[in-house]
Amino acid sequence: MIESIRTRRMNDAFLPGVELDSAINVTSDLADLADCDLILAVPPAQHMRATLQAFAPYARPGLPIILCSKGIERGSLKLMTDVLAETIPSATAAVLSGPSFAAEVARGLPSAVTLACADAAMAEALAGALSGPVFRPYYADDLIGAETGGALKNVLAIACGIVEGRELGRSAHAAVITRGYAEIVRVATALGGKAETVAGLCGVGDLVLTCSSPQSRNMSLGLALGQGLSVEQALEGKRSVAEGYESAPAVRELTRKLGVDTPICEATAAVLAGELTVDQAIESLMSRPLKPERE
Question: Any idea which residues are catalytic in this one (predicted)?
Fold first, then answer.
């Protein structure tokens, strides 16, 4: 892949047909990144810790590291900002999250995202550095809210894919998105984030996109499950990572630890773990005790 990018300016594996800018350099040596003004950290969430640990010797104090991966680390149950704080504590943490399929961004189609950083001046500066004619970051100071929206929407997208694959209708699809959003709000606020953050691009926006298109790796996984494939069959031959599959066990464990009710995430994790069939998961959700909508 490195040689293909270097010589042909193409990433055939993940962005076929998209010519990469000639200014982009490619390397497999993390030492080459030591002089960068900022870093966008994009490995899958479950590999973020190892990647940051490998880069740590080359990170100067205060270096802005923008975390783009969406998930909760299995075992530790930590968000990516927690992982960064433990591996490169001198870095300035930021989170980039929102409705943005990589292929569409690479093709120059318009998109808008959230860029969260505790330092308001740094957030504005980073947003300015990343913005372009068709890429618009809105800055915020709530990293927890931005991360939580990104992590849970991947699990919820699998649930929406199951709805589509089972042909349960648009009403059920809308219900999963709406009640799934309520789960995101509960988890974000329990962790110390703000409800208004997940009402924006990094929450509602990302949730709607990921739950509405088979282009989403997570929704396509759920679609296959809803059509009757096993988890193993649905994942077979996939080169890209469905973050929701990787994070679902951690989301379930974390929400139980927090004492937060997340029935859709719970049911999805149970299906992925082979503890419930798709039909059993649907029945369990539809037979829950009636309750006020705001609870």
Answer: 153
